[in-house]
Amino acid sequence: MWRKTICGQTVHRSSLIVHRSSFLLRILLYFCGMITAWQKRKENIVEYVIGLWQAEDLVRAVRFDIGQIRRTLVDPCGQPEEVRQETLRRYEELIEMMRSEGVIAKGHVQQSRKALTALTDLHLRLLKDPKETLYGALYYQTLPHIIQLRAKSGGIKMPELETCFTALYGYLLLRLQHRDIHPETHEAIRQINTFLSHLAGKYREETDP
Which of 6, 30, 104, 114 has fewest C-beta within 10 Å? Predict the structure, then answer.
């Protein structure tokens, strides 16, 4: 049985495929189609990366079976046939990328890694910019949560932004399984989400023509 351990808790395949009743319905509907994920690249780079990570795990959960992807992920979304065909094509492309890049069992495709690199470059520039006082304040408000998350990671060394993304994604999966989540974790995720949302806005400003 496929399963994934996040934040010390196990997430099973069923939570990735069939559960659609949580407060995160908007995000889950976004996960229904890789087309929307590509659109999010321009609209919200953070949701784009999280969407790619989710799509990777969904592909792993169905063992790279494109037929299963159609039956459990694409058809239930009720999109027109041309949209479903395009979505399937995106999943096929993702499957090929995962195989060719050697991230079949774990890891992330180069597209998401490049996005994280671009965000990290922007993050460092914003911290050095004396005009970006709000960004700096949000970062230093978030830093204690990043340090705490690193301390709980079992010694795994991870860049700061990747730590934030991993925490946000892990929180999403735990909510999908209706797991009990400590109030401190809720507060950490709230702060991380505020910080990443601001960074996503800065990225959009910089990349818009």
Answer: 114
Cβ neighbours of residue 200 under 8 Å, at least 6 residues apart? Answer: 44, 45, 46, 47
> In 62-159, which ranges are continuous DSSP H helix?
66-69, 81-100, 110-128, 133-151
Q: What does the alpha-carbon distance between residue 2 and residue 27 come to, in Å, rounded to a whole number?
A: 22
**Contact of 58 with 69, CB cutoff 8 Å:** yes
Q: What is the pTM of this model?
A: 0.81
Name the packing angle between helices 81-100 and 45-61 (round to 10°): 80
Q: Are 103 and 56 in contact (CB under 8 A)?
A: yes
User: What does the pLDDT read at residue 36?
Assistant: 56
Do 135 and 143 contact (CB within 8 A), yes or no?
no
Q: Identify any residues that bridge with 11 across adjacent strands, giving them in sequence order.
A: 4
* pLDDT the model gives residue 208: 78
Q: Can you tell me the distance from the alpha carbon of 188 to that of 146, in angstroms, rounded to the nearest whole number?
A: 8
DSSP states along 102-121:
T-SSS---HHHHHHHHHHHH
What is the overall mean pLDDT for the chain? 81
Residue 34: pLDDT over 90: no
